[in-house]
Amino acid sequence: MGNKIMKSQAEFEQEYQRKQEQKPSVLALNLLIKKKGRVSTEYQFLTPPIGKGQYSEIRKVINKKTGIMRAVKIVQKNANEKEEERVTSEVNILEKLDHPNILKINEYYSDDRFHYIITDYYSGGELFSKIQERRTFSETQAARIIRQLLYALNYCHLHGIAHREIRPENIMLERSSEFASAILIDFGMCQKISHKMHSSVNHPYYQAPEIQQKKYNEQIDIWAIGIITYILLCGYPPFGGESNRKIIDNVLKKPLIFEEQDWNKYSNESKEFVKKILIKDPSQRITIEQALNDPWIVKNFELQVSDGQLKRVLTNLVNYNSQSKLQEATLKLIVLYLASREELSELREIFTYIDSKNDGYIDVEELQTAMLKIFDFETTERQTNKICGEDETLSYSQFLAQAIDKQAILQKSKIETAFKLIDRNASGNINVEELCEAFKCNLAGNDQWIEIMNEVDANHDGALSLVEFTNMMKKLIQS
């Protein structure tokens, strides 16, 4: 993946603060839909539940308009005050996160009795189940999973968020294939890194020693990654015990041991990686950024991106030419809500490949490095600033929308389904109010909405018909 250009934590924090302070675009990038009322009017529930908690359950559902399968987490209201706080926290955090290895929230519903959090569905199931099924993994398989988790956690930490519940039950596999992507879920116990953290979190198997001191920081997440790495390779945790108290005692006092009969087939690099993480003093433990660049991870995680793949995706970026804000936002809606994960799999790999700094964004420098492999210097210089825009970066979802094959994604059926999603009252026309509801934004008044509508309202009747909407989207293919 080339040489990494390292930044200090302070530099990263300054850069992210700058992004946070920038004025939001007219049509917000986040398309989370929040509704009150019965979720069953728009989703068909499948049985039985695929997961259960004390106050919640998870079910598979199918969107009646799109036919796409999702997962819904159903949480009882008013059953437990802390659980209510967790729901609110999880929705608020997931709404802001945009990363290929982090759970994507699509919709949030609430009625008198329940909260409903609708997310992508991952058919591979929990990593925990896969560990029970397989017991051990090859070094390549383990390193791929761990690298993706580190990538997701680095993004979280740079955004000032500590996950605090890193364990196999909170890691999903995108599908059942051998090298499926790992997805980090369950953000209900997240905490801002700037806050003092002292509460007991996670299962004792994955608790860092400093949690017992009631004073810790985000380094507890990297400790949990070390525990998971150990389990993936040998099939059991390094600090076991017949009770939670005994497990905690072993975490605090027991030395890290690699039993010869279980570890003789694994490389010294794998053991060194685990040793660097499972250091009981958090100040001596390696950071996530160091772990991402560890020889064992780098050796076992090499994305195979051909020049042909890279050229095709970069050409789509170069040729992307949105003619209106509504066109841009609708394309993003189609990509995020209607495209299958299979349709996006190549783009996810290439995004990760280009993001050599592992911060979950593609900046001008990274894009230039990728483009110079395909295009000449003059074309690269001219196009990179145009592609990255005023922010000088591409977020993950921006990259997907701009880099996807428009001819393939803008099928008639997907355009019509997008129209139905925006046309909430099923009148056959989209009005200004429906645009405002579909695309959450910070507009000062109706004048700006009317201006956006007028950009594409061919007959100037104050509404968009399906024909006008389709013509607007087809221009992305023709341009």
UniProtKB/TrEMBL annotation:
The record's similarity note reads: Belongs to the protein kinase superfamily. Ser/Thr protein kinase family. CDPK subfamily.
Q: What is this protein called?
A: non-specific serine/threonine protein kinase
Q: Where does ATP bind?
A: 73
Keyword terms: ATP-binding, Calcium, Kinase, Metal-binding, Nucleotide-binding, Repeat, Serine/threonine-protein kinase, Transferase
Kindly give the InterPro entries that the UniProt entry links to this protein.
Answer: CDPK_Ser/Thr_kinases, EF_Hand_1_Ca_BS, EF_hand_dom, Prot_kinase_dom, Protein_kinase_ATP_BS
Which EC numbers does the record give? 2.7.11.1
Origin species, per record, is Paramecium pentaurelia
Cofactor(s) needed, names only, are: Mg(2+)
The record's CDD domains line, in alphabetical order, gives:
EFh, STKc_CAMK
List, in alphabetical order, the Gene Ontology terms for molecular function in this entry. ATP binding; calcium ion binding; protein serine/threonine kinase activity
* Catalysed conversion reaction: L-seryl-[protein] + ATP = O-phospho-L-seryl-[protein] + ADP + H(+); L-threonyl-[protein] + ATP = O-phospho-L-threonyl-[protein] + ADP + H(+)
Q: Name one Pfam family in it.
A: EF-hand_7
Per the record's keyword annotation, is ATP-binding included, yes or no?
Answer: yes
Q: Which domain of life is it from?
A: Eukaryota
Q: What class of enzyme is it?
A: transferase
Where is the Protein kinase domain positioned along the sequence?
A: 44-297
Q: Which residues cross the membrane?
A: none
Q: Name all EF-hand domain ranges.
A: 342-377, 410-445, 447-479
